[in-house]
Design a protein that fits this description.
The complex is a heterodimer of chains A (about 110) and B (about 475). Chain A is α+β, with helices and mostly antiparallel strands. Chain A contains three helices and seven strands. Chain A has one domain (about 1-100). In chain A, strands 2, 3, 4, 5 and 6 form a five-stranded antiparallel β-sheet that branches. A two-stranded antiparallel sheet of chain A has the order 1-7. The two termini of chain A are about 15 Å apart. Chain B folds into two domains: about 5-340 and about 460-475, no CATH class; about 345-455, Alpha-Beta Plaits, CATH 3.30.70.100. Chain B has helices at about 45-55, 70-80, 90-105, 115-130, 180-185, 200-210, 220-230, 285-290, 360-380, 420-430, 435; strands at about 30-40, 60, 105-110, 135-140, 170-175, 190-195, 260-265, 270-275, 300, 305-310, 315, 320-325, 330, 335-355, 385-390, 410-420, 445-460, 470-475. In chain B, the strands form three sheets. A ten-stranded mixed β-sheet of chain B has the order 11-12-8-7-1-2-3-6-4-18, with helices on both faces. In chain B, strands 5, 14, 15, 16 and 17 form a five-stranded antiparallel β-sheet that branches. A three-stranded antiparallel β-sheet of chain B has the order 9-10-13. In chain B, a hairpin with a 4-residue loop joins β11 and β12 (about 320-325). The chains are: A alpha+beta (about 110), B alpha+beta (about 475). At the A-B interface, β3, β4, β5 and β6 of A face α8, β15, β16 and β17 of B.
């Protein structure tokens, strides 16, 4: 087991709906799906996004496509049309998720 | 060609019915080829032309209407009643109409924005200017509920405030229409369908329902069709464009990125793919990223047509740049329709300036302090909100990560939300004034002011919507 940033083993895209941000998390190797389910919990994501997320973090599992979907409620500083933030949509934030460290079995991608 | 197929007998001014032979056929298709011509209002035009030329499409769909776009279009329409449709409508139509009309490809698009009628009329004119006679353009209207919504007792979903709070600032209210309403336009056997606000996947779903004869209440079927539409609706986001990362996820041919199309079977099972000569890639990974794009609960992706279920979707590799999509399902559609409400929400004033080299960060922070103090104390500005971002330190992540010091350069961005345009202009002026008043070494100052149009949502009953179509046709009988 080695601690590695998520970007080495997975990819993500951010989307916005009102004031909520959604982040997919997709392992390059489908066999890592279970490990991500275990490691990347809604609570860990909430902590990782502290200062950004003001509401609940919900996690949805999609074993059919070996992917996770996180919904970060109240995370866009009022929503894309109201926010003064530089990245109103939160589109860059997928790469913040990917900087999270996870402990995964040693296996090359 | 029979006259009674026309709604309300509206034929655009200066246009007459052509005695053309239509490409209509009542028999159901056994395969449908649907392409994505745009993923947003300002999208590239050449990939759509390439698809129209080479993909043997039955339908080419241009999705051009983000949440806020229609409110901005409404502002343009207030200034000019003939305006308020997509600024690239004419350019796109000139580029693709000669091809799509020749190939019998039907265009479906929400480029009508706040004014589908003018957009349809303009499209018929463009066809005529191109020497294309008998081109039938159908406008779908009825999404505009600005008359209905302020009187509604419903609340705003985001704030839970009553709608009447927005009474004086509301500039637009558009309900998301669905495939059911687009079907009415398709029944006119059009060359082009132009809508205002409709749900994005519905633009793709409606042709499937129409051509395959799916019952609107077969929610499993409608759900699968919605999955296919959702995959296609952002165009280049499916073909590896927004997916690409040169280190982790390299994609070749990005400057020549192709847009996707789907080959759909009557069962709804579809292969999403791209032209082999176009750049980009379609893989399981590009499809998964797009499948979850802007999704909340994947078991209930709500559209006007269905609560689609993505948790049963199956994606399988079906060759190079081809993925087979099946298994999507769904349950009953929502009783109500979502409405996007646009309202005036003050002004954004912004100024930016760069600092580089030793002490770049410290000088940028001092600059922000100076500007903010001057705005608040000397100009007595009372902004609704004010913020400083330090680009190069942690602006995009809004401070969630620790900046790595010392940054080689920092760009200060000061932004304030104000009640008037004049107040907003002060922000940029004060940032520009740092040139002579310091701190040292500030360069590349830019300023910007814009009106803020907020968008919130509410719900309306389906019975509050009165969707209808109007038909325009370019003069002349000659179809190529």
């Amino acid at each position: 087991m080695t601690a590695r940033p998520l970007y080495e083993v997975a990819h993500s895209r951010a989307g916005d709906k009102g004031n909520s941000l959604n982040l997919s998390l997709i392992p390059f190797d489908e066999e890592l799906y279970d490990a991500l389910v275990e490691q990347v919990t809604a609570e860990r994501v909430r902590l990782h996004f502290s200062g950004i997320v003001e509401g609940e973090v919900k996690r949805y599992c999609l074993p059919n496509v070996s992917a996770l979907n996180f919904v970060l409620e109240r995370s866009l500083a009022g929503g894309i049309t109201r926010s003064l933030a530089l990245d109103r949509h939160g589109k860059t934030l997928s790469y913040h998720l990917l900087s999270m460290l996870v402990r995964l079995p040693d296996r090359k991608r | 060609m029979v006259l009674h197929r026309y709604a309300a007998g509206w034929i655009g001014k200066g246009f007459a019915l052509g005695a053309s032979t239509r490409h209509t056929s009542p028999k159901l298709k056994n395969i449908l080829r649907i392409g994505a011509g745009a993923g947003y209002s300002g999208d590239r035009v050449d990939p759509a032309v390439e698809l129209a030329e080479k993909a043997e499409l039955d339908y080419l769909v241009f999705e051009c209407l983000a949440e806020r776009t229609i409110a901005l279009a409404q502002l343009r329409k207030l200034r000019d009643p003939e305006a308020g449709f997509d600024p690239l409508l004419e350019e796109r139509m000139r580029a693709v109409l000669p091809i799509t009309v020749h190939n019998g490809t039907c265009i479906v698009t929400n480029m009508g924005q706040a004014n589908p009628l003018s957009a349809a009329q303009r499209t018929a004119q463009v066809a005529q200017e191109l020497g294309l006679g008998g081109v039938r353009v159908v406008a779908l209207i009825g999404d505009d509920v600005l008359e209905v919504v302020p009187k509604s007792s419903n609340t705003v979903l985001e704030t839970d405030e009553p709608l009447k709070t927005y009474e004086n600032t509301m500039i637009s209210a558009n309900a998301y229409l669905g495939a059911e309403q687009i079907l009415r336009a398709l029944k006119h056997d059009p060359d082009v369908v132009i809508t205002g606000r409709v749900a994005d996947p519905s633009l793709f779903l409606a042709p499937m329902i129409y051509e395959f004869g799916w019952p609107l209440k077969d929610y499993a079927q409608i759900g699968q069709g919605t999955v296919v539409g959702h995959l296609l609706e952002c165009a280049g986001q499916l073909t590896g464009g927004y997916f690409a990362d040169p280190v982790a996820k390299p994609v070749s041919g990005m400057a020549n990125l192709g847009f996707p199309y789907a080959v759909v079977k009557p069962s709804g099972e579809a292969t999403v793919t791209k032209l082999s000569e176009a750049g980009g890639a379609i893989t399981l990974d590009t499809c998964k990223e797009q499948l979850l794009y802007e999704v909340g609960d994947p078991a209930r992706y709500l559209t006007p047509d269905v609560a689609a279920n993505f948790t049963s979707v199956k994606l399988e590799r079906a060759g190079k740049d081809a993925v087979l999509v099946s298994g999507g399902s769904g349950s009953s559609r929502p009783d109500t329709l979502k409405v996007s409400v646009g309202f005036r929400d003050g002004f954004l004033g912004e100024g930016q300036i760069s600092y580089a080299g030793p002490n770049a960060s410290e000088r940028a922070h001092l600059a922000a302090e100076v500007v903010i103090e001057r705005l608040l104390s000397i100009h007595r500005l009372e902004p609704m909100e004010i913020r400083a971002d330090y680009l190069g330190e942690n602006a995009a992540f809004r401070g969630a990560t620790k900046p790595s010091y010392p940054p080689a350069e920092v760009r200060l961005r000061l932004a304030a939300k104000t009640r008037t345009k004049e107040e907003a202009q002060l922000v940029g002026r004060e940032v520009q004034a740092l040139y002579t008043n310091g701190p040292a070494g500030g360069g590349g100052a830019r300023s910007h002011v814009e009106e803020i149009i907020g968008v919130d949502s509410t719900l309306v009953d389906r019975s509050d919507i009165c969707a209808r179509t109007e038909v325009f046709e370019s003069k002349g009988a000659c179809r190529p």
